[in-house]
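New to this. Comment on this protein:
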Amino acid sequence: MLFQDRKDAGQRLAFALRERRFERPVVLGIPRGGVPVAAEVARAVGGDLAVVVARKLGAPGSAELAIGATTANGVAYVNETLALETGADAGYLARERERQTREARRREELFNGHRRPPVAGRIVIIVDDGVATGATAIAAVRSMKVAGAERVILAVPVGPPGTIAQLRQEADEVVCLYEEPDFWAVGQYYVDFSPVEDSEVKAVLDAFVPAAVPDPRDFVISRDHVTLSARVLTPPGDGPFPCVVFVHGLGSSKESPRNVVIAEHLADAGIAALLFDLSGHGESSADPLGEGEAAYVADVTAVFRWAQARPELDAARLGLAGSSLGAVIAVRAVLLGLVRPETMVVRAPPLGPGDFDRLDVPSLVIIGSEDPLLASVKYGVARSKRASLAVVEGASHLFEEPGTLEEVLKATVSWFSRWLAPAATPSPPRR
């Protein structure tokens, strides 16, 4: 797996971290290469961005061979076995540690305008562009623990399994997108691994602006003696906003991590999201007439009509998104003429060819290449005049394989942005 550049790596890492719902963490990039990666993570998770400087302790006669690392506050890590093998005795280690600690302090002073906020009692995410020996990452993690961080998470795009296992003994949690058994060097996993200069680090820190946080509000929607619990995420600014109504799969709820992350990315793109619990799920009441497709279609219909009447949402730019059996429910509501979205995205839908035949709204169908439903879905989409197909390579039905859900997110946001966001003039607010 190749990353295009550090920004691409940071965006992919951010996707994995955003699901964890951190409360304004401190995100620290290890200069220099880790800072552009950390900026993407901090922006996505709504964190504060700063740096933690960690310097390698070079082996005698081979400065590039890391036998350990130290930080600006003097907290260090030494690989005792490697130090012994390379002839680094106690005197050499003391001198090298003192020299590199001074350099770490100098470099933190270089970024003086970007001193990190206090980390005591906060979640700290340390980010680098990859790890090889893991020496600098271990020193950085240890320094933040000494500084009183509540929890220290290390996040890297790539590293060898042995190093990642060692790092898991140091950090409270390690997030690594790709553990590569044939790892040789970090740069081999990037198309563009250009050196990062100090000036670029400063520029990234100067330009950093945290992502605007969507405004989540909870509502109760009623229909036929049923109360449906709903949450609306709106982008910052004034509406009315285009909106996507999400229909979760059975056994899930409006708290589905996949749907929530996609909803947040839609908000970044200027599109609101409405997530709700189907009757008998989550915080919604059960339908006294029983569960089943008819009840769930009635839920979707009531929620969609409620959205059409909301002043902060644009009734002319509403979309539907459904996953698995939730996709079936969304499509049924459309085919029955009960709702009329501008567009729709359905993920891994167990639909028959006849359902696709009758679709009369532009729809994107997302399916994994390893999903048993693939052949049937491909056949159905080929018969449809309004449906487009997106096959995610290597994905099974739930898109649990590394990187596959990220592809789903990109395809979903791109599709809704194309059909809902580019209206020339927003509809006037309803009175």
Q: What stands out?
A: Confidence is low (pLDDT under 50) at residues 423-431. The first helix runs from residue 6 to 18. The radius of gyration is 25 Å.
